[in-house]
Amino acid sequence: MERRHTRKFVRTFFTSPTAVEGEDDSAKMIRRAADLRGMQAPDVWVPDNEDATAPSMRDEGAQNIIDVVSEKGGDFPGEIHPRIVWHRDSPTTRYQGFQHMLTIADPDNGAVENIDGFVIPEVGGIDDWKKADEFFTIVENEHGLDEGSLAMSVIIESGAAELAMRKLRDEMGKPDNNLERMFLLVDGEVDYTKDMRAITPTGGLPPWPELRHNTSRGASAAGCIAVDGPYDDIRDVEGYNERMKNNQAKGMLGIWSLTPGQVVEANTNPLPPKTGSWLLDADGREVELTEEDGVFVYDGDRISLEEDGDEYTLTVGGDTQTLDEEELQSELLDLASYVPSMDDIVDSMAEFEAAKEAGTGAIAITRAATLRVDGVEVDIANDRMWDEATYQAAQTPITLFQDVYENRPDQHDELAEMYGADVVERATDVGN
Amino acid sequence: MERRHTRKFVRTFFTSPTAVEGEDDSAKMIRRAADLRGMQAPDVWVPDNEDATAPSMRDEGAQNIIDVVSEKGGDFPGEIHPRIVWHRDSPTTRYQGFQHMLTIADPDNGAVENIDGFVIPEVGGIDDWKKADEFFTIVENEHGLDEGSLAMSVIIESGAAELAMRKLRDEMGKPDNNLERMFLLVDGEVDYTKDMRAITPTGGLPPWPELRHNTSRGASAAGCIAVDGPYDDIRDVEGYNERMKNNQAKGMLGIWSLTPGQVVEANTNPLPPKTGSWLLDADGREVELTEEDGVFVYDGDRISLEEDGDEYTLTVGGDTQTLDEEELQSELLDLASYVPSMDDIVDSMAEFEAAKEAGTGAIAITRAATLRVDGVEVDIANDRMWDEATYQAAQTPITLFQDVYENRPDQHDELAEMYGADVVERATDVGN
Amino acid sequence: MERRHTRKFVRTFFTSPTAVEGEDDSAKMIRRAADLRGMQAPDVWVPDNEDATAPSMRDEGAQNIIDVVSEKGGDFPGEIHPRIVWHRDSPTTRYQGFQHMLTIADPDNGAVENIDGFVIPEVGGIDDWKKADEFFTIVENEHGLDEGSLAMSVIIESGAAELAMRKLRDEMGKPDNNLERMFLLVDGEVDYTKDMRAITPTGGLPPWPELRHNTSRGASAAGCIAVDGPYDDIRDVEGYNERMKNNQAKGMLGIWSLTPGQVVEANTNPLPPKTGSWLLDADGREVELTEEDGVFVYDGDRISLEEDGDEYTLTVGGDTQTLDEEELQSELLDLASYVPSMDDIVDSMAEFEAAKEAGTGAIAITRAATLRVDGVEVDIANDRMWDEATYQAAQTPITLFQDVYENRPDQHDELAEMYGADVVERATDVGN
């Protein structure tokens, strides 16, 4: 389904407490967040008047949102979507959330022109989503805003909400709602774990692969954007990046960020690398090879290779094979894979476009390299067929890049520094 | 959705054949099962008049249920839910199941006051569930029982039934059914495998992770309880416990048991351990460290560590790194994880409750330990942020324990022996 | 749900370009494909007038289908289901597809008597499926064919289509459609990856396990047949077979084939092996043991075993245990598994049938073997309980074989050569 929003992609969903007790300025955290720029600034910033803010501070938090967003919102480079309180099981909480929306969106308070929408946590079945949508409509109507102009994002943190996503496509467009305002579907794994009553021995969060799949699919079917929940272990940068890679293979390209440091990682991670690299599957572990003068070198202990005349002895893990040169090449080709750079992807796309222009529907894209294991060098070459479908599937990271480039001028300098101006220019042009 | 049943959790679902041919007393198996007490007695006992009993013995089986449950059911410590025959594709079978329900639930036969509900196997789409529900209603009406007083549990053993679960939340509460009686959603993987026409080389059951996720989610969305199917290899206690751990990370806290020995394992497994322990990820395999005088020792071959002045050489699998002390600590912290004891969980909950009382919304819970690898000792400390959501998610095993404690007085002695009276008392008090 | 089609199983879905530019005979590829016989001929052959054929060649492609199928279709041993163009987002494309269907199915053109149905790519929600179904109905009506006589298969290559599958069971049988014509649900992972906007570092396809589960479940619930998408790396025969094994554990027994070589693999893979074999789980990798004079030998480096009097030292990966004989047997039994041959399965089925006849509901099937590791021989014996459900679940590969045998006489010779005439005869008789 067509996406109705300015942003086609959202890499980062950054929450800040709206009111902190015991500070001179209770709005300190959102005031600081509003000043973020470039890679530190998220695609979507969420002044969080729910879980990040103590219940007793939430009225003050709503006022702080008004103060900070009316002052600084106009210069903020990303979108702004405050999170208000909501709960499928509590009419009190829902009414409080409605009142906060009414206040924050009041044009007399000066913030609403910089506010793109609201985030609704703890939703239940689709009828609960409709209650929230109806409050958006009333708020818009009361304040003379266009119907549907405020985007609605939800946190998926119950089994009921997970089931509701599949209905969105059918419900959107019905005359009695304005669900076309739906924007982000954001997983909230901590509360989801509670709702599902899951237990792990260490108390760590389960991986919930099916939830993430269903959120990504729900977003695809309803023209929304899928975002993964918070990654608590802020210290663990590698784990955070690993999670993003896993999410991306599910079509979930956005993730929650808890700190500006996580924002930088999450803004950068889905973009193709500057430099291509070769990986080798070393007995179940993927190892990146080191380039030395154009040769890609494996220097771990999990793979060993000996040459004896025409014969090669290859040992991977505990398994040893004696091979001739061709068999060795074939075996290493199976273990090796290439991670293309931004430039490589642009090259392949341009090559395919030229072939299509000339009337050819499919071409082979070849990646060749010399690998070195235990001093023995082996040439491998990997062919991949590209047709229209491959081309379009490969295009996703480039389309993402182009969406970033168009909507985030504050990141142009950092992108140019990352890739070089030349690659940036080619990447913004290709495929259009 | 709110759970409407006495038990909030069901750990064990134990089936017994209702009538065995060639025995003096064909009711021998259920007579013996009705005498089980303590950890050997399941939360839900299922006199099984379907697959466990030969087709020719099922009328006798229904009579045996009446005889045994009317005599011994009042003293049985768990709930009693006989399984009757049913099949989405066979009206003959459905009518036979209805007749057995009518007889077993007849108050003149003396069993129904000890019967909590019935288990319906082989259901199809939601309309098939409604046919069974209607028979419950007629049985209740004929026998002067309250509408909805007999719980209905189903075995999910077809793709159609898997799909039906997502509709339950929408259908419950409609005036033409009494589906609020729904209690357990139980996976039946053998027949499900047949229905899905899956093949494995060894003939073993596929793991069906998506089915188990969907059952757990369906239970969460409809206020039911999710239970996994039978684990055939009775000899393999380790595998059974492994399966339960995997299920628990999906929110499926109950499992089928085929023997009193399996009941003991399944009643015990979801409860937190008596003693905390440290695990180390040794090149992909989680190894529990041995405590020696307060130091946690790794003595396998997958990780090795050498100290040379300020420098450490750490080898995990085939990968060797040279690290300073701080890097080593960080590396081992990544590999280590702590499994909290019941007492640890209660401590953390009490600590958070006190902080919340004092107006603090989030605290760090620290776990510190000295690890020893190849004689080298390293101190590590693991901080975890706890906020309201973490607190509530961590509470699940304690709530489970409290549900067990309240509903299963016959297990009090064994629980006191497992944990000590002091820990039991703290665990029953915390969080209320 | 009951399957309404001649074939209960489809192993192979083979696509061929309908019109190739720059050839003397643009129909060359389908002309050649129409001549395939035996294991090289697919269960379902798909002259592909969509992605495999250039857009400019598709009118010629439709004509080529008519020419080749009217001439050679009568002798083709599999079913014939041309793929036409379709897109959920393009009425132009849908109308073009309709026109091609009208022409190809025109009895005056002589092809339709050999055509079993059409394949519709790029479907969206269920209402989009209904649009296609309506065109089938109009085509049938215009040409005097029975309503519902042309089967409809779809390619699942969008989140919306994935969601639609769960509705099929509810929609079939409604008076305003003829969706009972539904036949194959075929995953199309390249376009699905694009639609879901997934990214992988290497550009390879994500594994999409949830999609494949949902397709298999959708097929089970609606009486259709599930087929996996193309496996691009034609060179990688091992990977293709690995994928099929993975699919089969999900109940997805069919797969796309891009070459006659892949057709042979995919026609053969789901059939039980000629010879049984023992596998050993060698530290996470399954290794097939080599038979030497009735003893099954492990000769890798991942497991080692030493005998010292009554004591055995077993090392698996880095973990060493000292065991007595019984413990060693139990440990090896846990690591070992048996892959039964066609003959073994038939034996077990016959054994269970005889027991059932004699009034026994469950029997133990024992597999015994002598294993040899590092020269030490150990006897193990594996018992498995068979009851009615086990019997029926184990029957799937035999039912598949029988379906092949009945519908593909052109494969009889190859099957007799694979298994021997005796085994083939027993396998066609058992279970009926």
From TrEMBL, chains A, B, C:
Domain Malate synthase H C-terminal: 278-392
Enzyme class at the top of the EC tree: transferase
Single GO molecular function: malate synthase activity
Record keywords, A-Z: Acyltransferase, Magnesium, Metal-binding, Transferase
UniProt-listed InterPro entries: MS (IPR053484), MSH_C (IPR059088), Pyrv/PenolPyrv_kinase-like_dom (IPR015813), Pyrv_kinase-like_dom_sf (IPR040442)
Pfam families in the record: MSH_C
EC number per UniProt: 2.3.3.9
Xref: NCBIfam families: malate_syn_AceB_Halo (NF041315)
Stated name of the protein: Malate synthase AceB
Lineage of source species: Archaea, Methanobacteriati, Methanobacteriota, Stenosarchaea group, Halobacteria
